[in-house]
Amino acid sequence: LREEEKQILEITAAKEELSSQIKEIEGQISEIDANLVEKDDLNKRILSDRESMGKLNLEIENLTNTSLELKERSKGLKQAEGAICPLCEQPLNPEDRKKMVADLDEQVEKNRNDYRDSKARLEQTSSRLADHEKKMNALIKLEGDKQNKVRSLSTLQEKAKNSEKSMKNWQIKSDHYQALVKTITKKDFLPAEQENLKKINTQMEEV
């Protein structure tokens, strides 16, 4: 009987340890799932930032090209001689020339300000995108961790199932043994029947 009790105690301890491990892994998986909820929204933000960066780069390129063109026109007006506009080939007096140069320089200055603003927004977007991509890489790693934990959980659950089966088998054997002992020790039980029950018990021990 002591051997059966020892086995039952060992199986019970193993079951409790497995149960504890299963709960721990289930908690870890739930925590990962809570973090992965952000993944879809984060992916949208990454796509949005990439689109914004594409537009800002194009905007910066256009501003640069336009400013160069405006500077060339202003330079041409400043260097032109005579009363004919080098740009439109129309009559041009000094006052008109001066005003056109001022307008061109003003547009160049505006483009310069717009360029600085677009450049700053590009840097901010680029920095934000880097943060989002870093978080996304961490979430992708979490997905891999989750898959490993799900596999571990499946293994532990199978072990727990087998442990439960072993527990039931040992409990049946223990109950049978105790009932058998009580029967054998009865004074009115015939020796032949006692010997027969002992054989049955031996067979049960081998199960």
What does this protein structure show overall?
The protein is mainly alpha-helical and 207 residues long. Helices cover 88% and strands 0% of the residues. The protein contains 4 helices and no strands. Helix 2 packs antiparallel against helix 3 and helix 3 (94-184) packs antiparallel against helix 4 (191-205). The longest helix is centred in the last third of the chain and has 91 residues, at 94-184. The chain is rod-shaped, with a radius of gyration of 43 Å. The two termini are 15 Å apart.
DSSP strand (E) fraction? under 5%
Secondary-structure-based class equals mainly alpha
The residue ranges in which pLDDT falls below 50 over 5 or more consecutive positions are none
- Average pLDDT, rounded to a whole number, is 79
State the distance separating the first and last CA atoms.
15 Å
Helix content: over 70%
How many E strands?
0
Shape: rod-shaped
Annotation field: number of helices? 4
**Elements, N to C (H/E):** HHHH
**Largest sheet: number of strands, sense, barrel closure:** none
Whole-angstrom Rg: 43 Å
Summarize the structure.
By secondary structure, this protein is an all-alpha fold.
Topology:
Layout: H1 2-36, H2 39-79, H3 94-184, H4 191-205
Helix pairs in contact: 1-3, 2-3, 3-4
Give keywords:
mainly alpha; 207 residues; rod-shaped; 0% strand
